[in-house]
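ugh ok fine here u go
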Amino acid sequence: MRGHSSMTVSVLALTIGLAAADARPRADGWAALARGDYTRAAALLGPLAQRGQPRAMTALGYMYDNGFGVPQSYDAAAELYIAAAEHGDPAAQHLLGLSYDKGHGVDQDVVLAYKWLSLAAAAASQRQREPYLRIRNAVASKMSHEQIIEGQHLSLEWQQSRIGRPRREASASSL
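structure:
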C-alpha cells in the first residue's frame, strides 16, 4: 500500500507541476486539483479533456482511475489515458502502462504495458525518469525475453511513427 501511496503522490505532483507550468485561465481546475477539490477539478478539467488537452485528459483519467471527484471507472480512465498517451503525454503513457499491467480498463497485456512504460520513461523529465524506469523494469521481470523484445519493437515503431509530426501540446511559450 505504501508503494501505491507514493505513486499517487508522484503522479499528482507531476500533474500539478505540469499544470503550474501551463497556468492560463484553466488554472482554476489545476488549483482545485492541487487542493484536493476533485469535484470542482473534474468540472473544470472535463471540458479541456473533451477538447483534447493531453494534460487535462491525464489528470481526469487519474481521477476516474481512483474515484476522485468522479465515479471510479477503469474503462473511462483507460480511454483518457489512451488519448493522452497517443498525444505523447509521458504521465498518461506511464499510467496506461500500469493499466495494461493490471488489466484495469484494458485487457491485461505485459507487452503493451512494457511499450507504454518504456515510452513514458524515454519522454519523462529527469526527475521522473528513474521511478518510471523502475516500474518498467518491474514489469519486465515478469516477461519472457521474447516479450521484452516485442515491447521494445512496439515502442520503437510508435516513436518512429511520431517523427516529423508536430507536437500538439507544444506552444510558443514552452520553447
